[in-house]
Backbone:
């Protein structure tokens, strides 16, 4: 597999996973619609199917790309890059992005900074739709700490070579155990949308669950022959077709319980979470294989959305819930409303990017200094900024 091809397909897939977040947030408006109408089954089924693999897949791809970054950067360069690229959007969120509460009326409220100023204290920190950045920042920190704590000889011993995707099933017992403590009905991960105390509100089981997928991504980078195997048509078909049905089966079983998604029988509980964990991992690998099979050529449209996926995801939240809420109350057909809602959210997010980000230093956060339009002419600054 050629290096440029690998990076193109992996980077593009991570952008697709991020952009699917726009669709997911539009679908949530039809789980318990604010107009009092019932659940839209198609929206619930689609949301469930995407949810079970999207964030694990994103963490696999992030772990994969982090290994490449560690190989090219010094410790100081990697640390400053991760803090800037991952930590800065959270600061921008607290300053500029309205807080969203789907169950409140109105749904949108003032950004955190204004609440802090009004109260004269920082009572809690809103992570909102960027909660995963905190996890990713901590994952990178742990990886850096471990790399610097062991000698190269020790790391070489730890780095076990594997040549078949089936060896990744080694992680299933740990994933199953963490899934039991982190997922509702083996499907929906509990995540830290708001933090008052880092240690009590971090959702440690969810943290561990996603960290394993991050480690799997690192393993894939070190064992890229596995990626070649995932591109085989039989592997893609055997992972995507049968295991795509598993989330829907679990959803049906959970919905039929006296208390929705509460599995009281211990054997049933373990079996459900086991099947969900296997399905999640194999779906991720199948989707990675399919993407490599399809994205083998440079495409301007894909490259455009790959570059803009980060700012689109950053800005979309406000539009999705303000526009989407209005469409629900107006009685629009749910499918048409989701399509229109996503289109408007993406369009306005792109507009905000070009007006406020593209031609300013803020683009260094979203696309890195080297790929940004705005650059400093002084060479002394460039030496440092190129690390961002």
Residues:
């Amino acid at each position: 597999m050629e290096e440029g091809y690998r990076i193109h397909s992996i980077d593009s897939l991570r952008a697709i996973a991020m952009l699917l977040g726009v669709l997911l947030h539009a679908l949530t408006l039809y789980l318990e619609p604010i107009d009092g109408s019932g659940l839209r089954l198609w929206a619930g089924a689609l949301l469930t199917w995407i949810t079970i693999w999207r964030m694990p897949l994103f963490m696999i791809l992030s772990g994969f790309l982090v290994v490449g970054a560690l190989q090219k950067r010094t410790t100081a360069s990697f640390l400053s890059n991760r803090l800037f690229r991952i930590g800065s959007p959270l600061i921008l969120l607290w300053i500029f992005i309205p807080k969203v509460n789907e169950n409140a009326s109105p749904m949108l409220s003032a950004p955190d900074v204004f609440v802090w100023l009004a109260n004269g204290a920082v009572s809690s920190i809103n992570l909102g739709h960027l909660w995963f950045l905190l996890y990713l920042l901590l994952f990178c920190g742990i990886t850096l700490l471990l790399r610097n704590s062991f000698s190269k000889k020790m790391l070489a011993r730890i780095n076990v070579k594997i040549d078949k995707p089936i060896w990744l099933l080694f992680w299933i017992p740990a994933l199953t155990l963490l899934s039991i403590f982190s997922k509702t009905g083996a499907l929906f991960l509990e995540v830290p949308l708001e933090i008052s105390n880092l240690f009590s509100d971090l959702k440690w089981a969810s943290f561990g669950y996603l960290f394993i997928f991050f480690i799997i991504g690192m393993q894939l980078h070190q064992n890229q022959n596995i990626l070649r195997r995932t591109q085989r048509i039989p592997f893609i078909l055997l992972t995507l077709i049968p295991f795509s049905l598993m989330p829907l089966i679990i959803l049906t079983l959970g919905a039929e319980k006296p208390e929705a998604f509460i599995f009281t029988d211990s054997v049933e509980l373990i079996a459900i979470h086991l099947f969900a964990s296997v399905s999640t991992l194999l779906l991720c690998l199948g989707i990675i294989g399919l993407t490599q099979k399809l994205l083998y050529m440079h495409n301007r449209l894909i490259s455009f959305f790959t570059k803009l996926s980060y700012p689109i995801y950053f800005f979309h939240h406000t539009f999705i819930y303000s526009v989407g809420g209005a469409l629900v109350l107006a009685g629009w057909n749910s499918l048409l409303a989701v399509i229109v809602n996503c289109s408007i959210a993406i369009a306005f997010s792109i507009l905000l990017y070009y007006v406020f980000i593209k031609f300013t230093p803020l683009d260094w956060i979203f696309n890195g200094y080297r790929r940004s339009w705005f650059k400093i002419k002084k060479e002394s600054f460039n030496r440092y900024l190129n690390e961002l």
Observations:
- The chain is about 70% helix and 5% strand.
- Confidence is low (pLDDT under 50) at residues 1-6.
